[in-house]
Specification:
857 residues; alpha+beta; Phenylalanyl-tRNA Synthetase, Chain B, domain 1; Phenylalanyl-tRNA Synthetase, Chain B, domain 3
Length: 857
């Protein structure tokens, strides 16, 4: 994110002297530049410049070598009688004669790190030779700061390095790439406060030249994304550079404040101009180049070594800068817009440079940077959009600085290969901002705001056929966006700019009025919320998980080789290569949430999720997508929809640990398969569905002996509930005896009666109670026997509840007793003993017929 020092910003915009960094942050927030953090001036003195007079390496027993240094810190800050100070230092990137930054006793560095004289490694270390990270200037901690163009020993280093100045770090959205520069931020500050802004690009004079400085060819026969990879390439040459010239302290300070480490004068100048104007610049050692430079796409498998000494295998989409060493376009000089190569980098012996300022396709640069994991400062700017008209100006600024600071001489020739096109004009109805936002902006206010943005504004010439009310009541403007705003592509973008610059605080908060006519939640939405509420009332907590899984998840859940849940859709561009598939079951991802919570100490867990799963039926085909900038027609949309797999809505839950917590009046009870089955029973019953429940001995990932299968009356599968198989819990890392359920809500909603659930009829006559214990074979499901009892009881059986199950020697081997409590009631009379007896006899007779049941005596 950009770092903004006030002293630098003041060079481009009139910032009042009394303005603080906090006030600057508030001003920029008003125009949409969010404050990330404020880097406070965390250093207090004395911190001074020191010159190293002596370095004595001293090996230690632990294998480390320290340096015992004598450092001249000036007469005012020296030891007794102004003598040098003795300081222990573990870094080795400096030598005698170098100027360094010394924090003297009494100084306080970032993190409230106070410096004091202390005994270490057998010496009294009277201060600390500091690195950039220790001073809060950046993350570089590999060595201490060696100053270039140093002042005299004893000079205040706080002022020299800008350590006394707070710096604002801002967060820039992807569509505001021009704010990755002081030029862009100064412009936004002017929009916010009305301060006078001086565009630095207009203060730089680019001389005309009819002679090319260096031959350049753009060879891109395979434009990707509908555009060429490079539409502008500027090259300038500067000779006679003094290789010993040092970066001036003011430039080094600004680079450090912006989070960059000074390297060498030529490189520092290119970085400084990039930070100031926003145009990435690259400098080549001219003597190492072979004419011409060719911009081309890579050949698949081509090799290249970047400036960070990493060997990279290139992709056919990568855009390259090449030269003719070994043949036209054969030697790779750099990844366009990302990073240069090691062969032609500027070195300590470079005396002539070729300055490159180009404009590259943002998508190409973004994909190359991500493909090779190279998020360079140049790539950050190109992928967000760089002003294509800025290249010759930025190149000239670099040339001017090389002449002034490095003693170079600029060649008269200048290469400017320009194939850019002007931004397309946008027709804007001046009433559109007011209609969309609810603020009454006048046509003059709209035009004035867009002019201040840098856009060209002209009145639309209305044809004769369109004169009349349109011309009189709705004036239209023709807006030409400024070259640095490639994000402005349509009327809605212009409306956003009008609202932003006129002030978001001017937009009223208006509560919308609900329209009449019974519009509200749909039937599916009401049922979905009812299910969520029921589960929450039952003690389960709703979670949301990402729908991406690895192929190994199917094996962990012990799915059979022919299980349709193994047929998953693979994403063409997954967020993670480790999880490229879309889930086919909610349990695929819900178990991850359970494992994470259990691993963090939440051992008593009950969670659920409502979401979509992807269940392809047959071959998965890629969606036919139109090109960028094209609106798909109805045929295209129909073809896209046809390739989308079925995505049913489901609900799933996982329970582990205690279902009832231990307490003074209660004993702990672990969640078991009955809790998962009961949760589904309550969910289904709440929607008015009476399911068929059967044991399912072969449905992974559940235990074959503790799994219930729920089906609708027509045989449609609704879901499963029960205990997870031991091998599944072990593979996933879940506690043993974890239980779970998953229900197809689409199928459940289809099976539910439409419309509001009818209220049950209430009888005022008293109920009769009857208990019946039936002895049946041990393999008879209790649910099927209960359904038979309910059926035999007919309309008199208001409630049938299983309250006891027993197996023992008295019943005989392979037999069990199931006892049911019946509540009987008639809607029109008081039941008699004969009525109860008739129900009992009907129940026994039907159970005997179906299951061979006997009444237990």
């Amino acid at each position: 994110m950009p770092l903004v020092p006030l002293t630098w910003l003041r060079e481009h915009v009139d910032v009042p002297v009394q303005t603080t960094v906090e006030a600057l942050a508030a001003d920029l927030v008003r125009v949409g530049l969010e404050e990330e953090t404020i880097h406070s001036a965390g250093v207090t003195g004395p911190v001074v410049v020191g010159r190293v007079l002596e370095v004595v390496p001293e090996p230690q027993k632990n294998g480390k070598t320290i340096n015992w240094c004598q450092v001249d810190v000036g007469a005012e800050h020296g030891a007794e009688s102004g003598a040098p100070r003795g300081i222990v230092c573990g870094a080795d990137n400096f030598s005698v004669g170098d100027s360094v930054v010394v924090a003297l006793p009494g100084a306080v560095l970032p993190g409230d790190f106070e410096i004091a004289s202390r005994k270490t490694y057998g010496h009294i270390s009277d201060g600390m030779i500091s690195s950039a990270r220790e001073l809060g200037l950046g993350d570089d901690h590999e060595g201490i700061i060696v100053l270039t163009d140093p002042p005299a020993p004893g000079t205040d280093a706080i002022e020299l390095l800008g350590l006394g100045e707070s710096v604002l770090e801002i967060n820039v959205t992807p569509d505001r790439g021009y704010c990755f520069s002081m030029r862009g931020i100064a412009r936004e500050y002017a929009h916010s406060t009305g301060a006078a802004f001086t565009d630095p690009a207009l203060t730089i004079t680019v001389p005309e030249s009819a002679v090319d400085a260096f031959a350049v060819t753009v060879h891109d026969e395979r434009p990707i994304h509908g555009v060429g990879g490079c539409d502008r390439f500027v090259a300038r040459i500067v000779r006679g550079i003094d290789p010993q010239a040092q970066t001036p302290s003011w430039m080094a300070t600004r680079l450090r404040q912006a989070g960059m480490r000074p390297i060498s004068l030529v490189v520092d100048i290119t970085n400084y101009v990039m930070l100031d104007l926003g145009q990435p610049i690259h400098a080549y050692d001219l003597d190492s180049l072979a004419t011409p430079i060719v911009v081309r796409r890579a050949r698949a498998g081509e090799q290249f070594t970047t400036l960070d000494d990493a060997h990279r295998t290139l992709d056919a989409e990568d855009l390259l800068i090449t030269d003719s060493a070994g043949g036209a376009g054969e030697r790779v000089l750099g990844l366009a817009g990302v990073m240069g190569g090691a062969e032609t980098e500027v070195s300590a012996s470079t005396t002539a440079v070729l300055v490159e300022a180009a404009h590259f396709d943002p998508i190409t640069v973004a994909r190359t940077a991500r493909r090779h994991k190279l998020p360079s400062e140049a790539a950050k700017r190109f992928e967000r959009g760089v002003d294509p008209q800025l290249a010759p100006v930025a190149a000239q600024r670099v040339v001017d600085l090389l002449v002034t600071l490095a003693g170079g001489v600029a060649d008269d020739g200048a290469t400017d290969l320009d194939r850019t096109t002007a931004p397309a004009a946008i027709e804007l109805d001046t009433e559109l901002p007011g209609r969309l936002v609810g603020v009454d902006y006048s046509a003059d206010e709209v035009a004035e705001t867009l002019r201040s943005l840098g856009a060209g504004v002209a009145q639309v010439s209305v044809p004769e056929a369109e004169t009349g009310r349109r011309a009189l009541r709705r004036p239209h403007l023709l807006i030409t966006p400024p070259s640095w705003r490639p994000d402005l592509r349509g009327p809605a973008d212009l409306v956003e700019e009008v609202v932003r610059l006129r002030g978001y605080d001017q937009v009223p908060s208006v509560l919308p009025t609900a329209p009449p006519g019974g519009r509200g939640l749909s039937e599916v939405q009401r049922r979905r919320r009812a299910v969520a509420q029921l589960l929450a009332d039952g003690g389960l907590v709703q979670v949301l998980t990402y729908p991406f899984i690895a192929a190994e998840r199917h094996d962990q859940l012990d799915l059979a080789a022919d299980d349709p849940r193994r047929r998953a859709v693979r994403l063409a561009n997954p967020l993670s290569d480790a999880q490229p598939y879309l889930r086919t079951s909610l349990l695929h991802t819900l178990v991850d949430a359970a494992v994470r919570n259990v691993g963090r100490g939440l051992t008593d867990l009950a969670i659920y999720e409502i979401g979509l799963v992807t269940r392809p039926d047959g071959e998965v085909r890629p969606s036919p997508l139109p090109g960028p900038g094209q609106r798909p027609g109805e045929e295209d949309l129909a073809a896209i929809r046809a390739t989308v797999p079925d995505q049913p809505l489901r609900v799933a839950g996982v329970l582990t640990g205690n279902a009832v917590l231990p307490g003074v009046h209660a004993q702990a009870r672990r969640a078991d398969h009955a809790d998962a089955i009961e949760a589904v029973h309550r969910m289904v019953a709440s929607l008015g569905v009476t399911p068929q429940v059967q044991a399912d001995t072969g449905h992974a990932p559940w235990h074959p002996g503790r799994c219930a299968r729920f089906t609708a009356a027509d045989g449609t599968l609704l879901g499963h509930a029960g205990e997870l198989a031991p091998k599944v819990t072990q593979a996933l890392g879940l506690p043993a005896r974890t239980v779970a359920f998953e229900v197809d809500l689409d199928a459940l909603f289809t099976a539910a009666p439409s419309g509001p659930t009818p209220m049950p009829k209430i009888s005022t006559f008293p109920a009769a109670k009857e208990d019946i214990a039936l002895v049946v074979p041990a393999d008879v499901p209790a649910a099927e026997l209960q359904a038979t009892v309910q059926e035999a009881g007919g309309e008199l059986a208001e409630e049938v509840r299983l309250f006891d199950a027993y197996q023992g020697e008295a019943l005989g081997e392979g037999r069990k007793s199931l006892a049911f409590s019946l509540r009987l009631r008639a809607p029109d009379r008081t039941l008699t003993a004969a009525d109860s007896t008739a129900v009992r006899e009907a129940v026994v007779a039907l159970a005997a017929e179906r299951f061979g049941a006997e009444l237990r005596s």
